[in-house]
Protein backbone atom coordinates (compact mmCIF):
# COMPACT_ATOMS: atom_id res chain seq x y z
CA UNK A 1 0.00 0.00 0.00
CA UNK A 2 2.49 2.62 1.13
CA UNK A 3 2.29 6.32 1.91
CA UNK A 4 1.99 9.21 -0.53
CA UNK A 5 2.89 12.74 0.57
CA UNK A 6 1.21 15.54 -1.37
CA UNK A 7 2.28 19.15 -0.90
CA UNK A 8 -0.22 21.85 -1.75
CA UNK A 9 -2.73 19.18 -0.87
CA UNK A 10 -5.50 21.35 0.59
CA UNK A 11 -7.11 21.98 -2.80
CA UNK A 12 -6.77 22.07 -6.56
CA UNK A 13 -4.49 19.54 -8.23
CA UNK A 14 -3.08 18.33 -4.92
CA UNK A 15 -6.42 17.34 -3.43
CA UNK A 16 -7.56 15.86 -6.73
CA UNK A 17 -4.41 13.71 -6.79
CA UNK A 18 -5.05 12.61 -3.21
CA UNK A 19 -8.52 11.46 -4.20
CA UNK A 20 -7.03 9.20 -6.86
CA UNK A 21 -3.95 7.91 -5.03
CA UNK A 22 -5.85 7.50 -1.79
CA UNK A 23 -7.66 4.52 -3.27
CA UNK A 24 -4.65 2.36 -2.48
CA UNK A 25 -2.32 4.50 -0.38
CA UNK A 26 -2.32 6.31 2.93
CA UNK A 27 -2.24 10.03 2.17
CA UNK A 28 -0.35 12.78 3.99
CA UNK A 29 -1.52 16.21 2.89
CA UNK A 30 0.66 19.25 3.46
CA UNK A 31 -0.15 22.94 3.02
CA UNK A 32 0.22 26.25 4.87
CA UNK A 33 -3.42 26.53 6.02
CA UNK A 34 -4.49 24.26 8.86
CA UNK A 35 -8.14 25.15 8.30
CA UNK A 36 -8.08 24.20 4.62
CA UNK A 37 -6.12 21.03 5.39
CA UNK A 38 -8.68 19.94 7.97
CA UNK A 39 -11.48 20.45 5.45
CA UNK A 40 -9.58 18.45 2.81
CA UNK A 41 -8.92 15.57 5.20
CA UNK A 42 -12.60 15.55 6.19
CA UNK A 43 -13.58 15.25 2.50
CA UNK A 44 -11.13 12.40 1.94
CA UNK A 45 -12.20 10.60 5.08
CA UNK A 46 -15.84 10.83 4.00
CA UNK A 47 -14.79 9.17 0.74
CA UNK A 48 -13.19 6.28 2.64
CA UNK A 49 -9.62 7.48 2.16
CA UNK A 50 -7.09 7.30 5.00
CA UNK A 51 -5.49 10.73 5.25
CA UNK A 52 -3.55 12.93 7.65
CA UNK A 53 -2.65 16.60 7.51
CA UNK A 54 0.57 18.43 8.34
CA UNK A 55 1.07 22.19 8.10
CA UNK A 56 4.38 22.99 6.43
CA UNK A 57 6.06 26.04 4.92
CA UNK A 58 8.20 24.57 2.15
CA UNK A 59 10.60 27.51 2.24
CA UNK A 60 11.70 26.27 5.68
CA UNK A 61 14.26 23.50 5.25
CA UNK A 62 13.87 22.12 8.76
CA UNK A 63 10.09 21.99 8.44
CA UNK A 64 10.36 20.16 5.11
CA UNK A 65 12.80 17.63 6.56
CA UNK A 66 10.41 16.97 9.44
CA UNK A 67 7.46 16.62 7.05
CA UNK A 68 9.16 13.99 4.91
CA UNK A 69 10.40 12.09 7.96
CA UNK A 70 6.88 12.08 9.38
CA UNK A 71 5.44 10.64 6.16
CA UNK A 72 8.20 8.02 5.92
CA UNK A 73 7.62 6.94 9.51
CA UNK A 74 3.97 6.10 8.75
CA UNK A 75 4.99 3.29 6.39
CA UNK A 76 6.89 2.72 3.16
CA UNK A 77 7.05 6.08 1.35
CA UNK A 78 5.84 5.28 -2.15
CA UNK A 79 5.82 8.76 -3.64
CA UNK A 80 5.78 12.50 -3.12
CA UNK A 81 3.68 14.69 -5.40
CA UNK A 82 4.87 18.27 -5.02
CA UNK A 83 2.08 20.59 -6.18
CA UNK A 84 2.74 23.46 -3.75
CA UNK A 85 3.55 26.71 -5.49
CA UNK A 86 2.51 30.32 -6.06
CA UNK A 87 1.66 32.34 -9.17
CA UNK A 88 2.62 35.89 -10.25
CA UNK A 89 -0.45 37.47 -8.63
CA UNK A 90 0.31 35.93 -5.25
CA UNK A 91 3.40 37.81 -4.13
CA UNK A 92 6.72 39.50 -4.73
CA UNK A 93 9.51 38.10 -6.91
CA UNK A 94 11.34 37.06 -3.74
CA UNK A 95 8.32 35.20 -2.38
CA UNK A 96 7.69 33.45 -5.71
CA UNK A 97 11.31 32.30 -6.06
CA UNK A 98 11.53 31.11 -2.48
CA UNK A 99 8.33 29.06 -2.69
CA UNK A 100 8.64 27.69 -6.21
CA UNK A 101 12.39 27.21 -6.54
CA UNK A 102 13.89 27.05 -3.04
CA UNK A 103 10.93 25.02 -1.79
CA UNK A 104 11.51 22.49 -4.57
CA UNK A 105 15.19 22.20 -3.62
CA UNK A 106 14.31 21.58 0.04
CA UNK A 107 11.70 18.97 -0.83
CA UNK A 108 13.85 17.22 -3.41
CA UNK A 109 16.80 16.91 -1.01
CA UNK A 110 14.56 15.56 1.75
CA UNK A 111 12.93 13.14 -0.70
CA UNK A 112 16.32 11.86 -1.84
CA UNK A 113 17.32 11.04 1.72
CA UNK A 114 14.09 9.08 2.22
CA UNK A 115 14.03 7.42 -1.21
CA UNK A 116 13.99 3.65 -1.47
CA UNK A 117 13.83 1.51 -4.65
CA UNK A 118 10.54 2.18 -6.42
CA UNK A 119 10.04 5.63 -4.89
CA UNK A 120 8.97 8.54 -7.13
CA UNK A 121 9.02 12.32 -6.73
CA UNK A 122 6.80 14.27 -9.12
CA UNK A 123 7.39 18.04 -9.12
CA UNK A 124 4.79 20.35 -10.63
CA UNK A 125 6.31 22.96 -12.95
CA UNK A 126 4.35 25.02 -15.51
CA UNK A 127 4.00 25.79 -19.20
CA UNK A 128 5.56 29.15 -18.24
CA UNK A 129 8.85 27.32 -17.91
CA UNK A 130 8.59 26.36 -21.59
CA UNK A 131 7.53 29.70 -23.06
CA UNK A 132 10.53 31.84 -22.09
CA UNK A 133 13.43 31.36 -24.53
CA UNK A 134 16.11 29.12 -23.05
CA UNK A 135 18.78 31.71 -23.85
CA UNK A 136 17.16 34.00 -21.28
CA UNK A 137 17.14 31.40 -18.53
CA UNK A 138 19.91 31.81 -15.91
CA UNK A 139 21.29 28.29 -16.19
CA UNK A 140 24.48 29.19 -14.31
CA UNK A 141 22.34 30.29 -11.40
CA UNK A 142 20.30 27.08 -11.65
CA UNK A 143 23.51 25.09 -11.10
CA UNK A 144 24.06 26.90 -7.80
CA UNK A 145 21.15 24.83 -6.41
CA UNK A 146 23.51 21.86 -6.36
CA UNK A 147 25.45 23.65 -3.61
CA UNK A 148 24.22 26.20 -1.08
CA UNK A 149 20.43 26.49 -1.44
CA UNK A 150 20.14 29.93 0.15
CA UNK A 151 22.87 31.39 -2.05
CA UNK A 152 21.09 29.91 -5.05
CA UNK A 153 17.78 31.50 -4.01
CA UNK A 154 19.39 34.90 -3.43
CA UNK A 155 21.00 34.83 -6.87
CA UNK A 156 17.78 33.78 -8.59
CA UNK A 157 15.83 36.50 -6.79
CA UNK A 158 18.36 38.99 -8.11
CA UNK A 159 17.87 37.74 -11.66
CA UNK A 160 14.08 37.92 -11.32
CA UNK A 161 14.15 41.44 -9.90
CA UNK A 162 15.66 43.06 -12.97
CA UNK A 163 13.65 45.00 -15.52
CA UNK A 164 10.35 46.89 -15.13
CA UNK A 165 8.72 46.29 -11.76
CA UNK A 166 5.42 45.33 -13.41
CA UNK A 167 7.12 42.38 -15.07
CA UNK A 168 9.21 41.09 -12.19
CA UNK A 169 6.63 38.74 -10.65
CA UNK A 170 5.97 37.16 -14.04
CA UNK A 171 9.70 36.79 -14.64
CA UNK A 172 10.16 35.22 -11.22
CA UNK A 173 7.39 32.74 -11.94
CA UNK A 174 8.73 31.77 -15.37
CA UNK A 175 12.31 31.26 -14.27
CA UNK A 176 11.33 29.49 -11.05
CA UNK A 177 9.23 26.99 -12.99
CA UNK A 178 11.93 26.59 -15.65
CA UNK A 179 14.24 25.77 -12.75
CA UNK A 180 11.87 23.06 -11.51
CA UNK A 181 12.03 21.43 -14.96
CA UNK A 182 15.84 21.72 -15.11
CA UNK A 183 16.41 20.53 -11.55
CA UNK A 184 14.12 17.52 -11.86
CA UNK A 185 16.06 16.39 -14.92
CA UNK A 186 19.43 17.16 -13.33
CA UNK A 187 18.64 15.06 -10.25
CA UNK A 188 17.42 12.00 -12.16
CA UNK A 189 20.74 10.17 -12.06
CA UNK A 190 21.15 10.81 -8.34
CA UNK A 191 17.70 9.38 -7.64
CA UNK A 192 18.34 6.56 -10.10
CA UNK A 193 21.36 5.46 -8.09
CA UNK A 194 18.90 4.63 -5.31
CA UNK A 195 16.46 2.89 -7.65
CA UNK A 196 14.11 5.88 -7.41
CA UNK A 197 12.61 8.31 -9.92
CA UNK A 198 12.12 12.07 -10.26
CA UNK A 199 10.32 13.99 -12.99
CA UNK A 200 8.22 17.10 -13.51
CA UNK A 201 4.79 17.85 -14.97
CA UNK A 202 3.98 21.22 -16.55
CA UNK A 203 0.30 22.21 -16.59
CA UNK A 204 -1.06 24.91 -18.86
CA UNK A 205 -4.15 26.99 -17.99
CA UNK A 206 -5.99 24.93 -15.37
CA UNK A 207 -9.37 25.68 -13.80
CA UNK A 208 -8.24 25.98 -10.19
CA UNK A 209 -8.35 28.93 -7.79
CA UNK A 210 -4.76 29.79 -8.72
CA UNK A 211 -5.40 29.34 -12.44
CA UNK A 212 -8.41 31.64 -12.36
CA UNK A 213 -6.44 34.20 -10.36
CA UNK A 214 -4.14 34.49 -13.38
CA UNK A 215 -6.96 34.53 -15.94
CA UNK A 216 -6.69 38.26 -16.63
CA UNK A 217 -2.89 38.14 -16.56
CA UNK A 218 -2.30 35.80 -19.47
CA UNK A 219 -3.87 32.46 -18.57
CA UNK A 220 -7.18 33.42 -20.15
CA UNK A 221 -5.53 34.70 -23.33
CA UNK A 222 -3.42 31.56 -23.51
CA UNK A 223 -6.56 29.42 -23.74
CA UNK A 224 -7.26 31.03 -27.11
CA UNK A 225 -4.15 29.36 -28.48
CA UNK A 226 -4.87 25.88 -27.15
CA UNK A 227 -5.89 23.14 -29.52
CA UNK A 228 -8.77 22.26 -27.17
CA UNK A 229 -9.89 25.90 -26.59
CA UNK A 230 -10.65 25.46 -22.89
CA UNK A 231 -9.11 25.42 -19.44
CA UNK A 232 -7.94 22.05 -18.21
CA UNK A 233 -9.36 20.60 -15.01
CA UNK A 234 -7.59 19.75 -11.77
CA UNK A 235 -8.82 16.18 -12.19
CA UNK A 236 -7.21 15.84 -15.63
CA UNK A 237 -3.85 16.95 -14.26
CA UNK A 238 -4.29 14.74 -11.19
CA UNK A 239 -4.73 11.65 -13.35
CA UNK A 240 -1.34 12.35 -14.93
CA UNK A 241 0.33 13.12 -11.61
CA UNK A 242 -1.02 9.92 -10.07
CA UNK A 243 0.17 7.87 -13.04
CA UNK A 244 3.65 9.42 -12.95
CA UNK A 245 3.91 8.75 -9.21
CA UNK A 246 2.76 5.15 -9.53
CA UNK A 247 4.49 1.88 -10.41
CA UNK A 248 3.08 1.72 -13.94
CA UNK A 249 5.39 4.63 -14.79
CA UNK A 250 8.40 2.77 -13.41
CA UNK A 251 10.69 3.62 -16.36
CA UNK A 252 9.70 7.31 -16.50
CA UNK A 253 12.26 9.67 -14.99
CA UNK A 254 14.31 12.77 -15.74
CA UNK A 255 11.67 14.21 -18.06
CA UNK A 256 9.06 16.96 -18.05
CA UNK A 257 5.55 16.19 -19.30
CA UNK A 258 3.55 19.11 -20.69
CA UNK A 259 -0.21 18.90 -20.07
CA UNK A 260 -1.50 22.06 -21.71
CA UNK A 261 -4.34 21.19 -24.09
CA UNK A 262 -2.05 21.82 -27.04
CA UNK A 263 -1.07 25.36 -26.01
CA UNK A 264 2.66 25.10 -26.65
CA UNK A 265 1.96 23.62 -30.07
CA UNK A 266 0.00 26.74 -31.00
CA UNK A 267 2.15 29.46 -29.46
CA UNK A 268 4.79 31.25 -31.49
CA UNK A 269 6.40 34.67 -31.12
CA UNK A 270 3.27 36.47 -32.37
CA UNK A 271 1.08 34.71 -29.86
CA UNK A 272 3.53 35.29 -27.02
CA UNK A 273 3.51 39.03 -27.74
CA UNK A 274 -0.30 39.01 -27.75
CA UNK A 275 -0.33 37.32 -24.34
CA UNK A 276 2.18 39.83 -22.99
CA UNK A 277 -0.01 42.74 -24.15
CA UNK A 278 -3.12 41.22 -22.59
CA UNK A 279 -1.43 40.90 -19.20
CA UNK A 280 -0.58 44.61 -18.91
Give a description of the structure.
With 280 residues, this protein is α/β, with parallel strands linked by helices. The chain is built from 14 helices and 7 strands. It has a 7-stranded parallel β-sheet, with helices on both faces. Strand 1, helix 1 (12-21) and strand 2 (26-31) form a beta-alpha-beta unit. It is globular and about 50 Å long.
Question: Could you write a compact summary of the structure shown?
Answer:
This protein has 280 residues and is an alpha/beta fold. The chain contains 14 helices and seven strands. A seven-stranded parallel β-sheet has the order 3-2-1-4-5-6-7, with helices on both faces.
Which consecutive residue ranges, at least 5 long each, have pLDDT under 50? 276-280
Summing up helix and strand content along with how strands pair, one would put the structural category as alpha/beta
- What is the radius of gyration computed over CA atoms, rounded to a whole number of angstroms? 18 Å
Largest sheet: 7 strands, parallel
What is the succession of H and E elements? EHEHEHEHEHHHHHEHHHEHH
User: Number of helix segments?
Assistant: 14
Strand order of the largest sheet: 3-2-1-4-5-6-7
The overall pLDDT average reads 91
Shape: globular
The fraction of residues assigned to DSSP E strands is 5-15%
Between the first and last Cα atoms, what is the distance in angstroms? Answer: 48 Å
Annotation, overall tally of beta strands: 7
Amino acid sequence: MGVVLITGGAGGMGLATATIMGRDHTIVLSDVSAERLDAAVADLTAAGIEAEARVCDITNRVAVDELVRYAADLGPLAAIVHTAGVSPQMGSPEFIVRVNALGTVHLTRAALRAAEPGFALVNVASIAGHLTPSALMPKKTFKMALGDAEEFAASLIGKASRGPSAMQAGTAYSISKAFVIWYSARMAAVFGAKGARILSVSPGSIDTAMGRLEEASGAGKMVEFTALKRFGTAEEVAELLAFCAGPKAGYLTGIDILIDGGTRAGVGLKEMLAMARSSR
